[in-house]
């Protein structure tokens, strides 16, 4: 990408990076209680301005009031959850190995290790989650909790909402006494690239499309000093339904499927893109009826509407595709699109034959039902057809178990970050154990998550201190433990008993 920023704009970005860099050390050194209080202050400020922010979101994205209210609540909950993580201090993984003259490999010095903040992080806001994965969303919350200043690159799909949310976040952090430059907001594609390339930025995070995410990941990797880049990109989220599940609750499965595809007009990274059902499933009428009851929903912006229209047309024109629920896409004079649910059906053999045309995400309310024969090797289909995904779902009958089912679950766990049963993947719980990631192309780093308390680890690195005087140790490693964080202690003499536990 050619960057044609003016000298004045480059000077502005240099100031942004300099402020973040200056804030890095003092912000990382803030005591847990102070940093946690700042996160809670941000959550409270956003909640207090909910009506204003939701109105801006509705105007710019077309998402419903109920959806945006729920998303804003989720955003505040994320911030409060990370506040508790910071107060607990366990995320620092403080380890102390006492000096040991009798160490089995020779005298061991005093060694202490702790996780410390990476430094300034640039976070690229998402189009489809203007709160939860945007200005004050999960990446921002995790980076701030880790002690990293954040430079937020706002999304062009909701610029006014982004700027106003950023004002509130910055004011709340300032009011809580955090260093100047702890949080800053920029707009513009070229601006985002330039700040990602700045040597003072130490990590990047992104939620969006595969092409944009790959471009940014490559930029981060190509820097003279490469930096980690955590992108959440595309996902097809396959669902597998057994004959026993169809027999027990076929109608409920059909209704849940349509509702999951219809939610937020299908503009969710966890939308079920492919649902595998046994041939002769008998759900066609139920699916069609459920889809017809869904009211039109505006897509986020004209670019997404155009992309969805082109993808939908390509699927319709693919040989072997049968339409179960045609749905509609209507565009106004400004290019804004209103869509209803589209569901098409193919055989497993057609999916194999037409994989080049069909195995690509349709970002909008469209999903593909795949009919498999009685003797199908579902685990083999996963291995043959799918790359990495955020989620994989299995619907089974009560008490159902078999070697084939266990193999399917084993294979799915290698292809997805979250494997769920008898539910639908839309809706990602904000809870400590959540994993929202997966192998490429779901993410650029399949060992990380962008939801759940483990998300903080992306913005930390380990540092060990050997033979260091107490006064020069960071607070979490001092014997006095002024931050009162959990410390893992390996006493002298322990090494001679390693491996003897039964």
UniProtKB/TrEMBL annotation:
UniProt keyword annotation of Zinc present: no
The keyword Oxidoreductase is assigned to this record: yes
Keywords: Oxidoreductase
Domain Aldehyde dehydrogenase: 4-374
InterPro entries: Ald_DH/histidinol_DH, Ald_DH_C, Ald_DH_N, Aldehyde_DH_dom, Aldehyde_DH_Superfamily, ALDH_KGSADH, TAT_signal
Pfam families referenced in this protein's UniProt entry, alphabetically: Aldedh
SUPFAM superfamilies reported in the protein's UniProt record: ALDH-like
PROSITE patterns to which the protein is assigned, alphabetical: TAT
Name of the featured protein: Aldehyde dehydrogenase (NADP(+))
